[in-house]
Every structure is written in structure tokens, then in C-alpha cells.
């Protein structure tokens, strides 16, 4: 902090403490860091997930768990470029599968909505 050898430690500490900024915590009850300064994320209505079957939910949870495991593997083997490349290829395949699953679910939801609309008429 200082190059002079005759400066006392107490003076160095007091110099450092004066430079430490003081912060105020801004929080609301809904979100721990909610404030107009932060980007607000939209709340998701739970009814959007009611159409998912238990099998689909289980598959999604398995996907998230395997992604987490793969990330931890990547951090352990970051020095082995072939292992990292293989894991990235697996991740890309998983993402493509997730996109396909998402499109299938959207088509299924559209079909069900059309059937409900026909039944309501």
C-alpha cells in the first residue's frame, strides 16, 4: 500500500478503511434483489406446465442432471482437449434433441388446443 518503511501499520489500516465503499442492501419480499435497477424476469404461470406428463417431466429432470454432470466432468478434464471436444459434441446432440422435443410438445399443445376449441363449439 505504501512504500515508506517508517509508516505505522495503524495508519495503513486507517487509510485502507477510508477507501472501502459502503453499500446498502436493496431488497423486496418477492425477490431478494428486486429493484428498478435490475432487469425484471416475468413470472411463469404454473398452468403452462400442467400439460406435461410425468414421463416428460422425468426426462427433463434427467436431462438437467446429465447436463450438470457433464459440466462437472468438463471442469475436471479441461486440460484434455479430446475429452472436452467429445463432451461438447454430446451437449450439442442433447440440445438438438431438446429442440426436437420442444417442437413436438408445441405441436401437441396446438393440436390439443384445437381439439378443445372444437369441443367447446
Automatic annotation (TrEMBL):
- Where does it sit, as one GO cellular component term? cytoplasmic vesicle
Gene Ontology molecular function: myosin binding
Q: Where in the cell is it found?
A: Mitochondrion
A Pfam family that the UniProt record links to this protein: HAP1_N
Chief location bin: mitochondrion
What's any GO biological process attached to this entry? vesicle transport along microtubule
Q: Which UniProt keywords are listed? A: Coiled coil, Mitochondrion
The HAP1 N-terminal domain, residue ranges: 17-121
**What is the name of this protein?**
HAP1 N-terminal domain-containing protein
Source species: Adineta ricciae (Rotifer)
Amino acid at each position: 500500500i505504501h512504500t515508506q518503511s517508517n509508516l505505522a501499520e495503524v495508519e495503513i489500516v486507517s487509510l485502507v478503511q477510508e477507501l472501502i465503499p459502503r453499500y446498502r442492501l436493496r431488497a423486496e419480499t418477492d425477490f431478494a434483489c428486486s429493484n428498478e435497477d435490475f432487469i425484471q424476469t416475468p413470472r411463469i404461470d404454473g398452468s403452462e406446465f400442467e400439460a406435461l406428463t410425468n414421463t416428460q417431466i422425468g426426462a427433463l429432470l434427467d436431462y438437467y442432471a446429465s447436463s450438470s454432470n457433464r459440466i462437472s466432468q468438463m471442469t475436471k478434464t479441461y486440460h484434455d482437449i479430446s475429452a472436452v471436444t467429445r463432451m461438447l459434441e454430446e451437449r450439442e446432440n442433447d440440445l438438438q434433441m431438446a429442440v426436437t422435443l420442444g417442437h413436438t410438445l408445441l405441436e401437441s399443445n396446438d393440436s390439443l388446443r384445437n381439439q378443445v376449441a372444437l369441443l367447446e363449439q
